[in-house]
Specification:
161 residues; three-stranded antiparallel beta sheet; globular
C-alpha cells in the first residue's frame, strides 16, 4: 500500500519552521530598511534603495531557491553529497584564480561578470549537507579518533580556504 505522501512531487516543510523563517526574514528586512534609509538617501537619492535591492536580489532569489529545493527529495542529497564537498572546495579555491575579486584589500568574492558572490556562503550550505551525510554513516559515540580524523581534515581544509 502506497502512502499519499510518497506520491507528492514536493514536500512542504514544517509549518512552525516556515512561519518562523518568514518572520525572521520580515524582521531582517524591516531592520535593513530602517538602518539603511539615511545612507540610501544620501548615496542613491532613494531612502528605500538598499531595501528594494535586498528584496530583489536577496529575498526573491532566496524564495525561488526555497521552492526549487522543495522539489528535491532529501534522499537525493545523500547521493550527491561527495560531489557537493568537491564543489564546495572548488568554489572556495576560485578566489585564488583571476575570478577572485579584491575589495578593500581582501579577495573574498568571485566575479562571474554577470554576478558576484562570496564562495564561503555557498560552501557553508554545501558543507553542512556533506557533513550531515558523513555523520549519518558513522556512529560517533563509539568512533575512535582515527575514524573521526577525516572529518577534521576536511573541515580544516574548508576553513583554511
Amino acid at each position: 500500500m502506497t502512502s499519499i505522501s510518497s506520491k507528492r512531487k514536493y514536500f512542504w516543510p514544517d509549518p512552525f519552521f516556515t512561519i518562523t523563517f518568514f518572520i525572521l526574514v520580515f524582521w531582517g528586512l524591516l531592520i535593513l530598511g530602517s538602518a539603511s534609509s539615511n545612507f540610501s538617501n544620501l548615496k542613491f537619492g532613494d531612502s528605500f534603495f538598499m531595501f528594494k535591492k535586498q528584496i530583489l536580489f536577496g529575498f526573491l532569489t532566496g524564495l525561488i531557491g526555497f521552492f526549487i529545493t522543495l522539489k528535491i527529495p532529501y534522499k537525493y542529497y545523500k547521493k550527491v553529497a561527495p560531489l557537493l564537498l568537491v564543489g564546495s572546495i572548488a568554489i572556495l579555491a576560485m578566489v585564488f584564480t583571476p575570478l577572485g575579486l579584491k575589495i578593500k584589500g581582501s579577495t573574498r568574492w568571485v566575479d562571474l561578470k554577470l554576478f558576484s558572490f562570496q564562495p564561503s556562503e555557498v560552501a557553508k550550505v554545501l558543507s553542512i549537507i556533506y557533513f550531515a551525510y558523513w555523520f549519518s554513516k558513522k556512529n560517533i559515540a563509539e568512533a575512535s579518533f582515527k575514524e573521526i580524523l577525516p572529518f577534521f581534515i576536511i573541515l580544516g581544509t574548508i576553513l583554511t580556504l
